[in-house]
Specification:
Length: 166
């Protein structure tokens, strides 16, 4: 049993080193994209991954990266299964992940997805990650990627990305 627990911890440690191609400061674990790590009956390592946005081109890149890193560390055979049984939500993002986002200059998702409804609630007053003022204004519903909105702080005047709550 201990061996299996150690093995599982090792797998999660490796995954913690794999970052999201779009937000390199966040690992796939911070984002809550890893739904499970298991051994199947043939002793294949099976990593279940739910992409943050379905159809995201980053998914294939990530799958390859996970296989590559596990293989390089001798954790083989490894298989990455894309699990779409539940849609990824920002609720799965860890607190650690939200803190890292803020340090990176992106406002983390505010509140929980179920309270935001199915449509993204975009309001003024998202906390500025630079000066922590809540006097911010929505400039654009879409920023560098569809999952972010562009805000401008009315105090320090810095524009910033807000990671939308979904
Ligand atoms: Zn500011």
């Amino acid at each position: 049993m201990n061996l299996i627990r150690q093995f599982s911890d090792d797998c999660w440690d490796i995954l913690q080193q794999i970052s999201d191609p779009e937000i390199p400061v966040l690992s796939v674990v911070d984002l809550g994209m890893i739904r499970g790590v298991e051994l199947d009956q043939d002793n294949n390592i099976v990593v279940r991954l739910t992409p943050t946005y379905s159809g995201c081109p980053a998914t294939d890149v990530l799958k390859d990266e996970i296989v590559h890193v596990f293989t390089a560390k001798g954790f083989t055979p490894i298989q990455v299964v894309v699990d779409l049984s539940e849609a990824w939500t920002t609720d799965w993002m860890s607190q650690n992940g939200k803190d890292k986002l803020k340090q990176y200059g992106i406002a983390p998702p505010k509140g929980e997805a179920h309270s935001c409804g199915t449509h993204v609630a975009l309001t003024d007053g998202i906390e500025c990650p630079h000066c922590h003022s809540i006097h911010s204004k929505l400039l654009s519903e879409f920023s560098s990627t569809a999952c972010k909105a562009l805000y401008q702080c009315q105090d320090c005047l810095e524009p910033f990305d807000y990671f939308k709550c979904i």
